[in-house]
Design brief:
Layout (H helix, E strand, L loop, with lengths): L23 E5 L2 H4 L12 H6 L17 H14 L4 E5 L2 H4 L11 H16 L3 E7 L5 H7 L5 H19 L5 E6 L1 H10 L22 H28 L2 E7 L2 E4 L5 H23 L6 H7 L8 H7 L6 E4 L3 E6 L13 E4 L21 H15 L3 E5 L12 H4 L2 H19 L4 E6 L19 E3 L8 E3 L1 H13 L4
Parallel strand pairs: 1-2, 1-11, 2-3, 3-4, 4-5, 5-7, 6-8, 7-10, 10-11
Antiparallel strand pairs: 8-9, 12-13
The structure holds beta-D-fucopyranose.
Length: 492
């Protein structure tokens, strides 16, 4: 149909062919958000299964029991992705589908392995490159019950490593792009500081029965960093020599701009916010090999210390910088002493700056606004600080009013403008010398958006969640991305 493909790329003529010929593009998803089949074929429970079956935890009281039924419909989904022209697909493995009880001594579930084999083979048969995330937030519930999951680094590490080993061993002949953890920072902040995500721990007793927001997020983050590095060591020593893949981590990070650019205290606050959010994980891996000094200054001994051995293990433990980013905030310094539960660097994050300029048009998600300029700054900040190749692993938006698959809704110009703005910035950054090798839109279909349930629709495909078949309806942004990448990616 012509309405799908009539995009004018002429304003961006100078960006034609800006991206490398082997640039990977496609969509990213996460097992707990799409698969459904939450207890089928031997799958064990994850912390999200428990969380969403606890009343009051999810906005629309929904569960992910069915989600988009990607477990059943993977063939149709691959065919649809193929029709969207993608060259790659980023998805995550559900640990408790592969090792239902999670632990190093617990049995492997062959039907779970078979499912991912079928999916990987289907992708390869369609010339779509799989990018596989080992962990996208769904810790096996049994490990949480046995020893508190990631709060117990010593007991957790062998369990995670054994799971990683099974994945490298069983899928690594075909998977050449591995991501250990998705957004360790959001996992720990939302799960252990805010307590709004599984496993639902925080200092706030009106919300959570247990937890300590002033210490646990930093402990869990430390566990993630060290066990990421241990999994990479395992891959590099035992699998990479024959499998020849790359492995890294994906970090979250929105951009922080000063609220008042003429106030040195706000300029410093914005930099501190970037370090608390991003350098917290990235400095140990790609930078100094330790946590940022501003975090140590504010948090003191509440921030764990790397042993000498951990430090050298973590430093250099990622072949690339996996970047998930969505938006930008204006950041203002605070004059009061930092709150004990602060994890942002003692700043305020605002929607408008000192001149009343908005950070961007509102989406259907409270924290997310379209802010492409900040994205361009973020790419340069990360590149200048770390100088490693960047794989964009998530970026996208919701749009207001997407409640039914009407023509208006499917012609999702708000999302198209978001993607166009961000991709322009990406292509310009590449022209300026930033090494960017992939782009995964978040996300392929509308899905189960964690604690927001089915209310936040991020897909380039509308899903009718009421229907038995979870019917998919392509939105126009899917065709926009197809056309725009054809324009941006070099042919020769
Ligand atoms: C990221 C998550 C992803 C999805 C998007 C909107 O933080 O990695 O699963 O929730 O945000």
């Amino acid at each position: 149909m012509t309405w799908k493909h009539n995009f004018d790329t002429s304003p961006d003529v100078e960006l034609q062919g800006a991206l490398r010929k082997d640039f990977h593009w496609g969509y990213a998803t996460a097992a707990a958000q799409i698969e459904g089949a939450w207890n089928h074929d031997g799958k064990g429970p994850s912390i999200w299964d428990k969380f969403c079956h606890t009343p009051g935890k999810v906005k629309d009281d929904s569960t992910n029991e069915d989600a988009t039924r990607a477990y059943d419909l993977y063939k149709e989904d691959v065919a649809l992705m193929k029709s969207y022209g993608v060259t790659a697909y980023r998805f995550s493995l559900a640990w408790s589908r592969i090792v239902p009880l999670g632990g190093a001594e617990d049995p492997v579930n062959e039907p779970g392995i078979d499912y991912y084999n079928r999916l990987i083979n289907e992708l390869l048969a369609n010339s779509i490159t799989p990018f596989v995330t080992l962990f996208h937030w769904d810790t096996p519930q049994t490990l949480e019950d046995r020893y508190g999951g990631m709060l117990n680094q010593e007991r957790y590490a062998p369990d995670f490593l054994r799971y990683a080993r099974v994945c490298f061993d069983r899928f690594g002949d075909r998977v050449k792009h591995w991501i250990t953890y998705n957004e360790p920072g959001v996992y720990t902040l939302a799960g252990y500081a805010g307590g709004m995500h599984a496993p639902g721990r925080s200092s706030f007793r009106d919300r959570n029965e247990e937890g300590d927001s002033s210490t646990e997020p930093f402990i869990v983050a430390h566990t993630e960093l060290v066990t990421h590095a241990q999994a990479v060591k395992l891959y590099r020593e035992e699998f990479k020599p024959s499998q020849k893949g790359v492995i890294g981590i994906t970090l979250h990070g929105n951009y922080s701009d000063p609220w008042d650019v003429n106030d040195p205290a706000d300029v410093a606050a914005a930099e501190r916010a970037r370090q608390f959010e991003i350098a917290w994980f990235a400095d140990p891996i790609y930078g100094t090999g330790d946590y940022p000094a501003c975090m140590r200054d504010q948090l003191g001994d509440r921030l764990p210390r790397f042993t000498a051995e951990e430090k050298s293990l973590v430093h250099g433990s990622s072949d690339f910088y996996g970047m998930n980013t969505y938006t930008t905030f204006f950041v203002k310094h605070r004059t009061e002493e930092p709150d004990i539960n602060d994890h942002k660097g003692n700043v305020e994050k605002l929607d408008t700056n000192s001149e009343g300029k908005s950070r961007g048009p509102e989406s259907d998600t409270y924290w997310l606004r379209t802010a492409p300029e900040g994205f361009g700054k973020l790419l340069r900040w990360v590149w200048n600080r770390y100088h490693v190749p960047i794989y964009m692993t998530e970026n996208g938006t919701t749009a207001k009013g997407e409640v039914a698959p009407t023509d208006d809704v499917l012609n999702d110009t708000f999302r198209i403008e978001f993607f166009q703005g961000y991709l322009r910035e990406l292509a310009r950054a590449v022209q300026d010398g930033v090494d960017i090798r992939s782009y995964f839109g978040w996300t392929f279909t509308d899905n189960w958006e964690w604690a927001a349930g089915y209310t936040d629709r991020f897909g380039v495909t509308f899903v009718d969640f009421e229907s038995e078949e979870k019917t998919r309806y392509p939105k126009r942004s899917a065709y926009f991305l197809q056309d725009y990448f054809q324009h941006l990616i070099a042919r020769e």
